[in-house]
Amino acid sequence: MAAVASSARSLRGRAKLLALGRATKPIREATGIARAMLWTGAAITVFFVVLALFASVISPYRFDQYQSHGVRFAQLAHPSAKHLMGTTVQSTDVMARVIWGAQTELKVVVIALAMALTIGVPLGLISGYFGGLLDRLLVLLMDALFAFPYLLIAIVIAFLLANAQGILTAAIAITVAYVPLYFRVVRNHVISVREEPYVDAARALGARPRTVIRKYVFFNVVQNVPPIATLNAADAILLLAALGFLGYGIQPTQGAEWGYDINRAVSDATSGIWWTGLFPGLAIVLLVTGLTLLGEGLNETINPVLRRRRFGRFEFDALSPGAMDIEPLVEEPE
Amino acid sequence: MPGTSLRTYLLTRLALVLPMVLILLTMVFLLLRVAPGNPIEAALGGHVPAAYVHQITHRLGFDKPLYQQYGDYLWDILRGNFGTTITDNRPLTQIITVNGAATLELTFFAMLVAVVVGVLVGLVAGRYRDTPLDVFGRLFGIVVYATPVFFLGLMAQLVFGVWLNWLPTSDQASPLTQALLKTHTNIFVVDAIIDGNWSALKDIFEHLALPAATLGLTTAGIFIRLIRVNVIRTLRDDYIEAARARGIVERSVVFHHAFKNALVPVITVVGLNMALLLGGAVLTETTFNWPGIGHALVTYLENRDYTAVQGIIVVFALVVVAISVLVDFINAYVDPRIRY
Amino acid sequence: MSGEPLLSVRNLRVYYGTPGRPVRAVDGVSLDIGEAEVVGLVGESGCGKSTLGRGVIGLLPEGARAHGEVVYGGRNLVGLPPKALRALRGPELGLIFQEPMTRLNPLMRISDHFRETLEQHERRLTNREIRRRSLETLGRMGIPPTRFRQYPHEFSGGMRQRIMIALALVLRPKLLVADEPTTSLDVIVEGQILALLADLKRNFSTSLILVTHNLGIVAESCDRVAVMYAGKIVEEGPARNVFAEPSHPYTRELLRSTISLDTTELHSIPGAPPNLIDPPSGCRFHPRCPEIMAVCRERAPIETHPEPGRRALCWLHGPDGAIPPGGRQRLEREAIAVAEEA
Known about the structure:
A: about 325 residues, two-stranded antiparallel sheet, B: about 350 residues, about 75% helix
């Protein structure tokens, strides 16, 4: 009995692996431009993830470090060998702040998206599957929010929570802005899947709603989430930077934030000082571009509508014998 | 099916929109009442005599029961009264007309830039799909979207303002122009044209150049992506092949059929992206010290002026809803199949 | 048919590119179309008839290439520069598609469609003349002038097909190719459309290549018929004769499979259409032929003329000199292999 159970478990495990293989098949078979986008985006994203994870090791200084061995760094120094990207007015090293900034960005965005997914996806599933009054109310609410500028929602939330801790505030603000998006996407997908014959069949066989959702609807829907989440992460980074620029991001003591740095750099600009703003800005552009490339690449490989068919090249060879214009060997009798 | 009048459509659409407006207004109301702390004290800073705080609280109606405040709130909005700010005692309506006009000016020209750049690049990229032209166009769209508007603004200020000294980097117009310009609509460009004041117009456009270009460019990315995909899709449509079967020249096919059909959703996208643009406007106005409603919002937020914030958010909500209705209306006009 | 043919197809091959080897949709086809003649092109799905029809006009989808001759007006259309070919489409050659629902631009009025076509090819026409000619052609198709300025979505499927035909005819082309024009329409409308098409040669002196899988239509409307199988024309001749006395086993099987009011039991041709990437050896029909002989598996048949004016591609008709000894021995029909749809 136990042997049967364990072999059943290992079978299920193998089935899951096969399913995983099948799911990633389009990615492995991606060709052409979609593939280039996918892998370039992945490379850039991985680069920043590495920066974020290993900031303490990679960065020459800490983000708020303004001295070394008791000697204060130069203020607003040009980029040099000692400070590859120069220093700020507070004598902190720009490159250090860029590297540590990566950690802040990714930390906040990951938390925010995780929360948005945790709230938005189940809500969308339930609302889409069960419908009814709850669905109508939620849709009305989410649609109203959805039309509103993300930045404004985030600012208002951040404003209301201003007394709370920095990272969480920023994350919550971003979460609230994006929950309607996931809700909407998941709900729409659930509604279209719900009408599929195989779901109907499952229901006819007496499957409980929870089972139906879990086995059929969920996996179908979840496959759509990675490209959306990646593109969403790109957007979220821009949103976080915007919040930081306006002063609603994290506190300076908690970490470096690129948007906040650019805000500080505005006053430097009048004196012609460019490095305090350029490098954090370029970091934003690069990371968001990487995430967007990754997301679009995923979208194009997974979404069959956008895939481009490949045509082979071929040549016409000489006509094979027996073709229609060859004279018969013997005259036909009249 | 045929002949459903445009007017019927518009009325139906407006009726459907009412619940959404109500929800938005209610959300704004609740949100700001729910915040911790006494809003009046927060706005006034705390070192203000209690009697004064009391006076203002009473004047603004904050001491009434919640449902009564809600009723007053809705009734006021219906009559067009959006309240008065706590910190500087300005009526919201004045903020809306003066600052709102400035934001309108900025967003209009920014949207113009976004649409022109986006459509051009998108059309070319879609037409020449998978060629280097296409790749470059798409990459351009992605990078430009990835650039925060305040970063681009900062760099633009550095390059064009500080180093090249070609263009001004802040304000809507020079102090002299502002002093001399007569107020008609509060939209500087329009006012200058009405008066025929060409030197003022030049000054105004110089001030508009960087902010509008910055905001417009960063928003163009969305249009590029959309137009490109639409052109590709349209070129695959059956009627395109049928036109070719009648011997229509490729150039004609592309321009009169594909491009025209591909552009139909542009209006919708413009509308949908107003939200994005409004968010971007807030940032652009802060960067360039543009006296718009976004800048006002940020300032009042900093000063924790709840009434001002509430009033401005309400205006934003109404604008967003109005735009979505307008977009639907234009769509129905352009595409005769849509009219319910 | 008398005199020089209007259009002469010689050894045309049209292949579609794939990631692997190409699909040999049309694999060596010759056919003549005379003036004011209606020729039917029949066969199962995937036999290449649609490709042949489009190949004649030069409107092949991406990835397809043609080789051979399509002689029209003294020129070979295959290999003609695109501009020259395009100039011919409309005033000389036309194509009517299968699905009328999607073939009109939804944002353009019918009048706009006509104006565009006429302005493209006959620049000097005045607006009044454009309108007059459009209305006249539409009138012949049964579309009243009051509906001239309406949008496509305001018309039914049958009417849209008539509009498409009118659009194709307004320039008075000499040859029209109709690619399954009635397949997506109901039977009554189908009858009307076919009557229109059959009248083309009388009213417009236009030749018509009618591509269809419906034998009944062909029997009624066509002067001649060409039966296609696996990219080749296996039989061709005057429609009445071919249907009364088919020379090729495939034609016989097709006729037997046609359902009519006299049908008492269903007959179908066993097996499935052949793989066009890797067609069967010898005669392509041999795996499904009820009269298969030994030679049919080994060698591709040579075209013969069982009667003057008729062609057949089948070893049953010889030539005897080309059949090796023992080749005429009858065989059993092959077991049905799993089909690969072309």
